[in-house]
Amino acid sequence: MIKRLFLIALASLAFSGCDQVSQKLGLEDAAKKEATQQAEGKAVGSACRQSGRAIEDCYSIYNWLPKASIYEGWKEMDAYMRENQLETVAPQLPPPESPSAAKKRKKAEASAAAEPEAEKAGAKEESSTKSDEKSPAKTEEKGSSKTEEKSPAKH
């Protein structure tokens, strides 16, 4: 009897926590996600119209949102602004970076950060092999005619 109650309590806790677990994992219900994107698209379209941006610019800036919802919001705000004779408000901040552009930028930054480290490691290896090859007598003889090697330009 106690085992059965324990199993029922455990199962009810597990099932009640599914929403919390899926939220932590970043899993969303498809209908919820679509409704959220529709609402965000309408808000973005309205904001674009109020700021005087062309609808095509909004599509390209906010390419992760559905075009239909952006257009719907833009059209509603256009009607509202004409009806109430409102002027456009110039945006004070630059448009946000799209998620795909942010991923590309992060990859480029990571590869650029890894590049100087590889150059430093390569330069240390070269200098150690060169110093092992040369004897002190040879460096004295060639010291006056030796030219300094220039390090590659950093990006």
List the SSEs and their pairings.
Blueprint: H1 2-16, H2 18-25, H3 30-51, H4 55-61, H5 67-84, H6 99-133, H7 136-142
Structure description:
The chain has helices at residues 2-16, 18-25, 30-51, 55-61, 67-84, 99-133, 136-142. The chain is mostly helical. It has a domain at 30-89 and 96-115. The longest helix has 35 residues, at 99-133. The protein is flat, with a radius of gyration of 31 Å. The model is unreliable at 137-151 (pLDDT under 50).
Mean pLDDT: 76
Order of helices and strands: HHHHHHH
Number of strands: 0
Distance between the termini: 71 Å
Shape: flat
Q: Which stretches are low in confidence, meaning pLDDT under 50 for 5 or more residues running?
A: 137-151
Q: What's the total helix number?
A: 7
Major beta-sheet overview: none
Please give the share of residues in helix. over 70%
Brief summary of the model shown:
By secondary structure, the chain is mainly alpha-helical.
What features would you highlight for this structure?
155 residues; mainly alpha; flat
